[in-house]
């Protein structure tokens, strides 16, 4: 009996239409737990409706220029702090420019990252091990998701390492590179992480100042921080209207710092509508995480975002996730509770929140706004 189901759109793609570089990426994707392109087809209600390069001036992220900090005045610092607080409250996202990290350093880590992801599949798989095949392990090359479950399979390759309190970058990098290539890659990623961590501490202090709090209200808990770095590679996709690089989600951390290449793909949900973030060379995209939303008594917003694809070129994003130690208690300061008239979230430790997220995600098999599970 003939099937009444329409053919899967991916079955119509001819191998001859895929470039050699795309074929290598496709082999890498298929080697990581799936042999069927149909796994990458997402439900219709989750497929992108806004293309990766749909930039609109009336819907751009706030831009925070940190060059004013160079004059050292308290007045300038307070103005910047209030702008960051406004962006965290209204958008949950903003661009940071003139932040003091040389553009050349960011270009170098982009270069080294691209060189790795464009290696043949056999070479990249040197980074994989029995540990990286374990679903509970989030480090190394090749895991498509890190605790999140989506309705479809993400079209992404990635490399992830811990940075603080103890870096495992060297261990993970040695699984995939050697010689000068290893040293260049390690140096570039270390520079990226070191710069991002310093910038994250400064930004968190400006967040507190902008809310009328002591600058170290949050940052005093970040010594050391518990931070990780993730290098994302989104290969060109033959049918970008059917799949996603990453599905809609919020970040559980305190702050996320993302540096993307000049190819668009990051989309942010603002007032129920998806907005494509236009890349800015040398800029960081900063977003509020779930635990900072609770920590600020809901003043700041942890906002859904996703990664969309295109069928022409690959895209890179370099991400630094900034969070406190696992035993840190996330509890809104009394100044904010008194000003707001009530406490909006229960107190919890960062470790408890991660355990809750993993448990809920595993049981429900989809992403939700997990921080609301702690709302009062």
Automatic annotation (TrEMBL):
UniProt cross-references to SUPFAM superfamilies, sorted A to Z: Clavaminate synthase-like (SSF51197)
Any one GO molecular function term: oxidoreductase activity
Domain of life (superkingdom): Eukaryota
Entry cofactors: L-ascorbate
Keyword terms, alphabetized: Iron, Metal-binding, Oxidoreductase
Catalytically driven reaction(s): gibberellin A12 + 2 2-oxoglutarate + 3 O2 + H(+) = gibberellin A9 + 2 succinate + 3 CO2 + 2 H2O
UniProt domain Fe2OG dioxygenase: residue ranges: 224-324
The UniProt record lists the keyword Manganese: no
GO biological process: gibberellin metabolic process
Pfam families in alphabetical order: 2OG-FeII_Oxy (PF03171), DIOX_N (PF14226)
Family membership noted in the UniProt record: Belongs to the iron/ascorbate-dependent oxidoreductase family.
Protein name according to UniProt: Gibberellin 20-oxidase-like protein
Organism encoding this protein: Physcomitrium patens (Spreading-leaved earth moss)
